[in-house]
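REQUEST ID: PR-0412
SUBMITTED BY: lab tech R.K.
PRIORITY: routine
TASK: structure prediction, single protein chain
INPUT:
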Amino acid sequence: MTRKKKYKKKQNICPKCNALVGRYSEICEHCGYKLIKRCPICGGYLSHIKQHFCKELKRIVSKEEIEEREKAKKEREKAKKEREKVGREKREEAMEKEKEDYNKIPNLEDLIKSYVYQQ
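STATUS: complete
OUTPUT:
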């Protein structure tokens, strides 16, 4: 007589709220925590493990290093947006200055009239 083995669905625990979540769940249903993240360097999936073999760097990368790289990337994006905003403001100021300078130039008709009246 053979016994059938009972297989349990493998469940994971959310590190934030300690609730049971499915094995392949990307987001915790209870608290909304991102369970499966991607490596910012190579794009590979990360799980709750502390280390990840990065295909791009061809070495093991710790979770702390990945988090530091994500923070640095966010800071770079924020700085880029600020630079774009400043650049846009400078362009608008330059356009206003051009309009003012253009308005200061007299019309050709006015120049002709003044020349005719002078003679």
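NOTES: The CA atoms of residues 20 and 82 lie 41 Å apart.
REVIEWED BY: pending
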